[in-house]
Amino acid sequence: MHKGADLAAAIGAASVVPGTFSTATRSGLPIGRAAGHFLAMGSKSRESIYGGSVRAAAERATEARKDADRLACAAWNKRMLGFQGPAQPSPALGDALNAGYRYLEVKCLGCNTHQTVALDIARRPKATPVHELERYMRCRDCSQVRGYPYKRSVLVALRATKISAGDPQSTWWPGER
Ligand SMILES: [Zn+2]
User: Fold this and answer.
1) Is the pLDDT score of 83 beyond 50?
2) What separation in Å is there between the alpha carbon of 159 and the centre of ligand 1?
3) Is residue 18 within 8 Å of 2, Cβ to Cβ?
4) 139 alpha carbon to ligand 1 midpoint, in Å?
5) 103 CA distance to ligand 1 centroid (A)?
6) What distance in Å separates the CA atoms of residue 63 and residue 44, rounded to the nearest whole number?
7) C or N: which end of the chain has fewer Cβ atoms within 10 Å?
8) Cα-Cα-Cα-Cα dihedral sign, residues 159, 164, 166, 172
9) Residue 148 C-alpha to ligand 1 middle, in angstroms?
10) How does DSSP classify residue 138?
11) Who wins on pLDDT, 12 or 104?
12) pLDDT 10s digits, 60-72
């Protein structure tokens, strides 16, 4: 091959040079060896080439979302415990569960006790902001004593566990009100 043919091949015009093999596509650009192989690949090799990257990206997104949900719940808790509100806006029920906050702690205004409500059994859409759950809560003791559903309470905080001896109720941060 003389130099002219080499040059023609290099710029993708090989087919116009008699006696040379054309690698040109309709776009006029030559198909490289790797790209030609790529076009012939089936779903299995796509999986082997891209699968790991696709899964890794999805896992990173899941982790980032969980981190964001945790941070949003922690921020809401700080606002509630530090300033006692405003409760709105609040994390969504599903986001709180995703972040590991399975309970909402409220303080009943009738008997002043702190109680927890399990978020995973709340029959509300996962997009419901947790502050909206307050109005559905009723204190069992106060309802029994009064003979009607007693629902006056204030939101305290989201928490991972129920209130127990080893896991006491949340306390509002000290200071002048
Ligand atoms: Zn009560």
Assistant:
1) yes
2) 20
3) no
4) 5
5) 18
6) 27
7) C
8) positive
9) 12
10) -
11) 104
12) 999 999 999 999 9
pLDDT for res 29: 55
Which residues have their alpha-adjacent CB atom under 5 A from ion ligand 1? 108, 110-111, 139, 142
- Alpha helix stretches (DSSP H) within 3-103: 3-10, 33-39, 43-83, 93-98
Cα separations in angstroms, 56 against 49, 65, 66, 98, 113:
13, 14, 15, 19, 46
- Of the pLDDT bands very low, low, confident and very high (cuts 50, 70, 90), residue 17 is very low
| Residue 122 pLDDT level (bands cut at 50, 70, 90) | confident
Residue 27 has pLDDT above 90, yes or no: no
Measured in angstroms, how far is the CA atom of residue 142 from the centroid of ligand 1?
4
Report the separation in Å between the CA atom of 107 and the middle of ligand 1, taken as the mean of its atom positions.
Answer: 8
Cα-based torsion angle of the residue sequence 128, 156, 119, 73 in order, rounded to the nearest 10 degrees: 70
Return the pLDDT at 170.
94
